[in-house]
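Worked problem 6 (solution included).
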Amino acid sequence: MILDALSCRRSCRSFKPDPVSHALIEEIIKAAQFAPTAHNRRAVEFVVVTDPKVRQAIQSALVAQDFVARAPVLIVPVSDTKIASKPTEDLALATENIWLQVTHLKLGCVWKHVHAEKELSAVRAILGIPEHCLIINVIPVGYPTEKPAPHTDAEFDPKRIHREKW
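Solution. The predicted structure is:
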């Protein structure tokens, strides 16, 4: 059941140094490419970073949080704003598919937001991404050092459901 997979999806900020195979990275990107895009424009592409020096440079550009460079893989979803009609939404949907596939593969990941124009410009420069492309996040991926408990039914709140109107 899909709810079982969703309940196990948790943010991970602590990774083992073990490399993630090229085959697993491709599975993750395949899941991301299956995400819906506005008007089926399919303008999302992905930069996969495994080089430790490049990961360190990206971490330095993103308000230095150690887990960014310690993850063995960084996936950077990128949307071409010359093609996409809803680039932010397309990137968010691709990211969700990445999270679910990462969880399915017993890996861990987290959304590291690219906040300000300064961060965006730095990441673009480090990775050679053109100015007309949007980046909203960097996704560190790797084998988690610990497995957080899954979500439970106790976290479900039916009071947050509004029927017909607020």
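Discussion: The longest strand covers residues 73-80.
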